Amino acid sequence: MLVSPGSRVAALAACGALLLAGAGCGADKSEEATTTPQVRLYGSDGNMTNAYAAEFKERADLLDGMKGTTPLTPLPEAFKNRLRAVDPKLTDYLYSAESYDAVVISALAAQLAGSTDPAAIAKQIVGVTNNGERCEKPAECLRLARNGRDIEYRGVSLNRAGFTDAGEPATASYATLTFGEEKLDDGKTEFVGAGDESAASTKNPPRSHRQDSGKVPSAPLVLGGLLPRTGDLAIAYPPLAAGAALALKEINAAGGVLGEDVRWVDGDDGTNPAVAKETVEKHIADGVHVIIGAGASGISRAVLPDVVAAGLVLFSPSNTDAGLTSVEDKGLYFRTAPPDSLQGRALADVILRDGPHRIALVARKDSYGEGLQENVRAELERAGIDGDRVKLLTYEPPADAKAPPLDFTAGAREIKEYGADAVLVIGFGESAQVIRALADSGVQIRH
To answer: Where is the signal peptide, in residue numbers (predicted)?
Structure first.
């Protein structure tokens, strides 16, 4: 169900008014009378996946009824089929469309620039998505670009408006997801639109080049992967990798870029700054022009200075930290994932529908977790939820796979004593320990 941004804001305001008046927003009166409240669980894009259930092993039933949001547009079945042809084991599609579009936009920008120079590619990226001849398929868009025509790419994730001047989507679609019996219940998925089409850039890019009139580079366009093959965000790797692989396959089937097949150099970000920096260093040595990644916002923040110093493009399909909109990047950082200033509104909406009285917001301690936590808190406050009804907690994620697992025992005890009836968990695979700790501390999780 697609809900307009205006109606969503009105619903938030109405819900906030009810809460201020002492009434629940859809709350069950019998539940209000319970001395020990049952806790509803909520999640965000880092853990609302089928792969997350595997982190619980035999305790996956703890997730039954958990709700949350993720940037997701209704994906055409044909696109899913093409992804499964690349990876038959695929069970999730989180950020697959964003990964696909990031690779396609990079290729189109290089074709329009008539060059594989990263600086020239960067100057075309925003323009690829705005104020040109509308096209949707890589083959169609590449044909126009080879003829020197300005294009306006509309892909799988980028389907309403183009990029802003900052190089990120002006609009987004969010899915409200719900866990059923140990996996997401697709029948309960709803879609909510967000953003403002008028925020799309109106600037004209540099003049595009006809392929037959420009100098064809002696080397092909090289894209380097910086995706979370390992680490806390590894649960999101399969759809990210499948989206990139599918885009590369279809671009090269359509004749490639500037007369050459586009090359892909694989690379892991490890959900770890040290691992990611090593990968970036290798990509620089291997002559990569555009790096697709990183998976996590904090990892992109860590490697961006190195990427910028080398003069390469960093293009992430899954960074959502709102602070990255204004990061110093010399015009070399882009993303197809929308900022969390938009997801914060969608998450607050989901939580408020259930009429909570005390809300705990638990986040991993990094730019993604703390940034989204603050966005949700601000949206709850805007809807009339007083500060004493919201509790903020953070945790340090394990440094790497060899580190001891997260111990959230003290935090769980604090949430229980606070009497929360809603807990939002913002994290990646490691956040499963938060939910286990809640259950082990005697918190009654509502299913």
So the answer is: 1-26
